[in-house]
């Protein structure tokens, strides 16, 4: 409670006391009772009440978030050209009065859900896109009164600026912006661009009417039931197409893997065949070389000897019919004596 309110409260008590004294004096006079001293007290209370009432009517306390417009009977234009600043201020009692305006930030919300906005019920903005689709938009506008233009605001709008300026200007700007975009652009690629367009346009409209746009918030976008169903079907079709594409890609990968496995097996078979052929060549070359060495070492006597050994490895003496020649000379089985 500020000092102006305190003074006005005391003045009210003084008036109550004065009226009480008057009633008491009338009652006592009707009963022929003395009212000595009551007259002086009544005069004191009357003077006090008048003085405090005058002082209370002339003192105004302006809160930090407020500015005051003084309507004056003594001003040439009917109002003071400077708004009252925060603090305890003095005006001419009974000849001037103060209209207070908040300069703090205010939010005006338009939403489809009941209880979210200033209007009870569905207050969303119904707009039509460039391609003819109807959409519903929930939005909030954060704004404040321009402290430097508060007198102009009072002259032009008084306390009607929210219902007659903020609301219609916001709804009209949103509809105009929506009409410049296709519905798919609004919900995807160009939503931010549309928000920026609304913010710039609305800021200019507010500035021309002594308000400051702090922020525009595009809260939500709703669609008609028909369009929502169409969008859902499209998304389902796109998901199915994407799934089919993934299946095809998977089959391609599996085919490529099988091809690579087959190629690897073929390459391995070729390498194995080449290795076997190379081994056979090496073996044949070794056998040929061995045969060459063996052929070079063979003599007729050695061949006959090997032949006899093959016939009977344990035979030391062979008896032949008379008149036949020996197959080969028998090896000497006795050690010759030295003469």
CATH class of the largest domain: Alpha Beta
Model regions low in confidence, pLDDT < 50 over at least 5 residues: none
| CATH topology description of the largest domain | Tetrahydropterin Synthase, Chain A
How many structural domains? 3
Task: List the secondary-structure elements in sequence, H or E.
Answer: HHEEEEEEEHHHHEHH
**Average pLDDT score:** 82
Largest sheet: 4 strands, antiparallel
CATH-level-4 superfamily name of the largest domain: Band 7 domain
Proportion in helices: 40-55%
Q: Classify the secondary structure makeup into a structural class.
A: alpha+beta
Radius of gyration, taken over Cα atoms and rounded to an integer in Å: 59 Å
- Judging by the overall fold, what is the CATH architecture of the largest domain? 2-Layer Sandwich
Distance between the termini: 163 Å
Strand content: 15-25%
* Strands, count: 8
Brief overview:
This protein is an alpha+beta fold and 339 residues long. The protein contains eight helices and eight strands, in the order H-H-E-E-E-E-E-E-E-H-H-H-H-E-H-H. It has three domains: 3-102, no CATH class; 106-223, Band 7 domain (Tetrahydropterin Synthase, Chain A, 2-Layer Sandwich), CATH 3.30.479; 243-290.
Describe the structure.
- By secondary structure, this protein is of the alpha+beta class.
- It folds into 3 domains: 100 residues, no CATH class; 118 residues, 2-Layer Sandwich (Tetrahydropterin Synthase, Chain A); 48 residues.
- Helix content is 53%, strand content 17%.
- The protein is built from 8 helices and 8 strands.
- The strands form 3 sheets. Strands 5, 6, 7 and 8 form a 4-stranded antiparallel sheet that branches. Strands 1-3 form a two-stranded antiparallel ribbon. It has a two-stranded antiparallel ribbon with strand order 2-4.
- Strand 6 and strand 7 form a beta hairpin.
- Helix 1 runs antiparallel to helix 2 and helix 4 runs antiparallel to helix 6.
- The mean pLDDT is 82.
């Amino acid at each position: 409670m500020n000092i102006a309110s305190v003074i006005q409260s005391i003045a009210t008590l003084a008036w109550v006391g004065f009226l009480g004294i008057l009633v008491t004096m009338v009652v006592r006079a009707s009963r022929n009772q003395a009212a000595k001293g009551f007259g002086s007290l009544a005069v004191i209370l009357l003077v006090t009440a008048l003085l405090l009432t005058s002082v209370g009517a002339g003192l105004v306390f302006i809160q930090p978030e407020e500015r005051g417009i003084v309507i004056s009977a003594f001003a040439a234009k009917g109002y003071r050209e400077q708004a009252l600043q925060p603090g305890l201020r003095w005006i001419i009692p009974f000849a001037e009065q103060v209209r207070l305006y908040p300069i703090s930030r205010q939010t005006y919300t338009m939403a489809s859900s009941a209880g979210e906005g200033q209007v009870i019920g569905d207050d969303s903005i119904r707009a039509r896109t460039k391609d003819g689709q109807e959409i519903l938009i929930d939005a909030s506008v954060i704004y404040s009164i321009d402290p430097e233009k508060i007198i102009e605001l009072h002259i032009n709008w008084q306390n009607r600026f929210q219902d007659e300026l903020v609301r219609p200007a916001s709804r009209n700007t949103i509809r105009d912006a929506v009409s410049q975009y296709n519905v798919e652009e609004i919900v995807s690629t160009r939503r931010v661009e549309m928000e920026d367009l609304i913010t710039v346009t609305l800021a200019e409209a507010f500035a021309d009417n002594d308000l400051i746009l702090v922020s525009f918030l595009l809260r939500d976008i709703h669609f008609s039931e028909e369009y929502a169903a169409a969008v859902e079907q499209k998304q389902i079709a796109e998901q199915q197409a994407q799934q089919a594409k993934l299946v095809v890609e998977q089959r391609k990968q599996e085919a490529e893997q099988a091809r690579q496995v087959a190629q690897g097996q073929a390459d391995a078979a070729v390498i194995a065949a080449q290795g076997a052929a190379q081994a056979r060549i090496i073996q044949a070359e070794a056998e040929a070389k061995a045969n060459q060495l063996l052929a070079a070492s063979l003599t007729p006597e050695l061949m006959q000897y090997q032949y006899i050994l093959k016939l009977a490895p344990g035979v030391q003496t062979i008896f032949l019919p008379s008149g036949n020649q020996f197959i080969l000379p028998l090896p000497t089985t006795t050690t010759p004596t030295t003469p």
